[in-house]
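Run log // design_07
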């Protein structure tokens, strides 16, 4: 049967755009549907605007510390509306770039909500299109739990468009988005609390990193409340919110921000018209080639719930495009050694195994750890400390993991990820000459294993 397209991609986010562009570049006839915003979550309500707000929040400490270096500036003040307007302008620019990228690579862009009407058919804006392959790259959506008063809470989607900076914010959640937004609101001057129902936030990160960051955030004045969860939210006559916790305490705030999880975006997608199955958590079930249980339909990115990061969605999109249309270049996506950062203030950067994972996997583990006050702070009163940690296999000398809490950790860990991917040993680290004076050189000068 002749189809209208070789590949019909639903979702012009990180994964969908990558797959569509490269498939078209390999000569395939490709269409992409987008219902909301070009560039998807990352560009519009994720990585990019988040990082811009983190930069914004960072200025608070820069102004504070500048006086130790001889600078006198007028009294610093912050205007949220200016930052949001400038951020929106930048996002508009990026939306335009995404549009050009798609159109210039020969992809047909269909703007509207796409619904799958059969294994090879998609309906959008009242028109039906057939395709040999359909790629579901519809991403995820924040979830706010069903508690009384949930309508008064916001998620990351709304946080990027708040008209003004709330005076008091209660961030709920223990994942990286919660931690990053707590840092943003706190840095900009809001009285901020982070509530998490577990013992300690950032489950899955190295225990030393989690503890160190908690100490540093507390030192900065961020109110961390672990083993705490919300029972209900009641709006008061003056617009403020009374939050009742499960332990009976009440807190007053102006904004409750939930970052407690994301679900796959499958709304009105029409999967019931196909044999596509979901996994036990509700994400689209795929095999290692991203094929669903309906042979003509594939899925990638957040909607499959594997590793919900933009570079992973990009790699998956590339793998699909190559396997279908350039098989000689096809390689499986390697999910090991994915570096990642938490853009908290200070940053976390991490790649490879945590100490806990390494022990669980049966490695005989050697730990190298360093805590120090970064040189930039030496003239200031700030007592913040940087943590660097290497997890090494004592038998093979291989470096299994690198972890850092400190300024620019996200930037530093990218280079380390290449070393770990290439299988670097501790000896390779030791024989690498440092860049002096930097914080990063500490990664190649740690000599004595921790007790
Ligand atoms: C607040 C926040 C911060 C983040 N920070 C980072 C970070 O720092 N680093 C990082 O790597 N990752 C970060 N992420 C995660 C990253 O944004 C996602 O992993 C990534 O965007 C997933 O890409 P995707 O292609 O799977 O989906 P998305 O980028 O979500 O794209 C899906 C697209 O599909 C569209 N769509 C959905 N249904 C339909 C339909 N039926 N018809 C047409 N279009 C449809 C949507 O409108 C959307 O544009 C962050 C996420 C959030 C929420």
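design_07 sequence
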């Amino acid at each position: 049967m002749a189809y209208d397209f070789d590949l019909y991609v639903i979702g012009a986010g990180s994964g969908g755009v990558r797959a569509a562009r490269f498939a078209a570049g390999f000569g395939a006839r490709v269409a992409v549907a987008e219902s909301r915003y070009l560039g998807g979550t990352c560009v519009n309500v994720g990585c990019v605007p988040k990082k811009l707000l983190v930069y914004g929040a960072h200025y608070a400490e820069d102004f504070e510390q500048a006086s130790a270096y001889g600078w006198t500036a007028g009294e610093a003040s912050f205007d949220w509306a200016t930052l949001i307007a400038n951020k929106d302008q930048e996002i508009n620019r990026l939306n335009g770039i995404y549009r050009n990228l798609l159109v210039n690579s020969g992809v047909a862009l269909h703007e509207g909500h796409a619904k799958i009407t059969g294994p090879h058919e998609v309906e959008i804006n009242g028109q039906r299109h057939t395709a040999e392959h359909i790629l579901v790259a519809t991403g995820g959506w924040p979830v706010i739990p069903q508690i009384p008063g949930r309508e008064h809470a916001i998620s990351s989607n709304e946080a990027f468009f708040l008209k003004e900076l709330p005076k008091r914010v209660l961030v709920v959640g223990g994942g990286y988005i919660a931690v990053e937004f707590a840092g943003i609101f706190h840095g900009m001057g809001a009285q901020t609390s982070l509530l998490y129902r577990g013992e300690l936030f950032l489950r899955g990160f190295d225990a030393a990193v989690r503890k160190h960051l908690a100490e540093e955030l507390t030192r900065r004045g961020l109110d961390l409340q672990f083993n705490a969860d919300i029972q209900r939210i009641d709006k008061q006559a003056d617009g403020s919110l009374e939050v009742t916790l499960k332990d009976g305490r009440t807190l007053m705030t102006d904004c409750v921000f939930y970052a407690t999880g994301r679900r796959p975006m499958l709304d009105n997608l029409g999967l019931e018209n196909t044999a596509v199955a979901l996994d036990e958590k509700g994400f689209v079930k795929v095999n290692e080639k991203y094929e669903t249980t309906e042979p003509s339909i594939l899925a990638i990115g957040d909607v499959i719930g594997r590793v919900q990061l933009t570079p992973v969605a990009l790699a998956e999109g590339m793998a699909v495009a190559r396997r279908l249309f350039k098989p000689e270049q096809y390689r499986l996506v390697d999910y090991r050694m994915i570096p990642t950062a938490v853009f908290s203030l200070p940053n976390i950067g991490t790649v490879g195994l945590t100490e806990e994972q390494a022990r669980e996997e049966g490695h005989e583990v050697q730990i190298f750890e360093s805590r120090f006050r970064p040189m930039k702070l030496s003239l200031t009163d700030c007592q913040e400390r940087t943590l660097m940690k290497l997890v090494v296999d004592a038998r093979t000398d291989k470096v299994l993991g690198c972890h850092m809490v400190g300024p620019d950790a996200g930037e530093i860990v990218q280079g380390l990820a290449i070393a770990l991917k290439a299988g670097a040993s501790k000896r390779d680290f030791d024989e690498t000459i440092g860049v002096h004076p930097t914080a990063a050189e500490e990664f190649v000068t740690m000599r004595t294993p921790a007790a």
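The chain has three domains: 5-141+263-329, 150-260, 340-444.
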